[in-house]
Amino acid sequence: MGNPDLQALSARQSGLKACTSCGSLQSITDHRLCRDCGAVVRSRRSKSLQRVWAFLIVGVMAYFPANIYPIMLTRSFTGNTSDTILSGVVVLIQSGSYVVALIIFAASICIPVVKFLVIAGLALSLQYDWDISNHTRHRLHTVTEFIGRWSMIDVFVVAVLAALIQLGAIMTIVPGVGINAFAVSVIFTMLAASSLDPRLLWDHSNND
Amino acid sequence: MTIAVGNPENEADLDRLIACPGCDLLHYRRALEVGEHARCGRCADVIQTRKPHTVDRTLAAVLASIILLLVSLCLPFLSLSRAGIASNISVLDAVSALWFSHMRWLALLTLAFIVLLPLTRLLLLGWVLWRIRFKRRIRRTMRTAFRWSIRMEPWAMAEIFMVGVVVSLVKISTLANLHMGLAFWSLLLLIAISCYINLVLCKDTIWAILICKP
């Protein structure tokens, strides 16, 4: 692939912009909607980096209360307990469900943290022209967009448990404040990932 | 893959070109054989596809998904019993339980991600494909509908909900007797079918039909 002898041009360099939904091209100076599908066509998503930072900062801010406050309160005749995200994983390990513990650990702790770092890294690399291979950046972007939604697992676990375990005096599970913060964090990180226009990653260099 | 050289300002040339959605590099469109796909020469993203029987296969899968989704919503997916008290819930019960235990925000979120977005997406996709399949007139609204069904894709989280259900099963399996309801299996089937939809839906073919281009 990537033949260095050919002078490859992007749509933008040729004075064109492509519709992201149906793919048809129009002149970059043409401000109308896409002539084929009616979507708004932009050469690059508008204010891409600003949006990435705004969404990402909200995501990171919400991640702290999500881990500090309990996500689930259990009331039973043996007493009340509350679980945070991390203590939920510990309980699963103690009860021997290693696979499920691993799933929750990956979805609620690894994926969000890795996503924060990767998105921030990509945004910084665009702003300061870091010398990272475009292929690496492109792959990182594809992966973060794909895995982000899986962080929602914990939210649904709490929703299911809270709805199912309503056994009156024997045992009742109530969602905690932490889960709200966690859902906000996941949603805003997804928005941050989808605001980052992958085409920006290739704009600066023409050599590969 | 041919890489576009030169400066194509000509309107007539535009339809012969395609820009890679991943990196914006221009390529000449190729006439693909059925089953082939073309990748970008720079970032290797797929830029053109031509999948066989896409309208028939996707429409069948979408109709099956709509039925399964409705089944999954109304019938109980889990039931548990302990010390003579039984409780069984469907997805709608789960949402209403959250709503009435003052977790309205979480209830709305679950409702949107599990019920509203997947259902709207399937209905839009089904409507567009139905009209194409039965040779109805192509309307402009069909393009809008198809566009929105694509945009909703990352936010429809039925399969993630399913993993959540399995995890909760493991968490409480020691506390009570659990039984999987019919909706559990239909949710499982729904996930398999939604993977199948992603495999057989050829956006290029559908766009070409909707835009009425060769």
Molecular structure report:
The complex is a heterodimer of chains A (208) and B (214). With 208 residues, chain A is mainly alpha-helical. Chain A folds into 2 domains: 1-43, no CATH class; 46-205, Up-down Bundle (Butyryl-CoA Dehydrogenase, subunit A, domain 3). Chain A is built from 6 helices and 5 strands. Chain A has helices at residues 48-68, 85-94, 98-127, 134-147, 153-164, 177-195; strands at 16-18, 25-27, 72-76, 79-83, 171-175. In chain A, strands 4-3-5 form a 3-stranded antiparallel β-sheet. In chain A, helix 1 (48-68) runs antiparallel to helix 6. The model of chain A is unreliable at 1-6 (pLDDT under 50). Chain B has 214 residues and is of the alpha+beta class. Chain B has 8 helices and 7 strands, in the order H-E-E-E-E-H-E-E-H-H-H-H-E-H-H. Chain B has helices at 11-14, 54-74, 91-100, 104-133, 140-151, 158-172, 182-200, 203-211; strands at residues 17-19, 26-28, 37-39, 46-49, 78-82, 85-89, 177-180. In chain B, the strands form 3 sheets. A 3-stranded antiparallel β-sheet of chain B has the order 6-5-7. In chain B, helix 3 packs antiparallel against helix 4. The longest helix of chain B has 30 residues, at 104-133. The two termini of chain B are 20 Å apart. Residues 1-8 of chain B have low confidence and may be disordered.
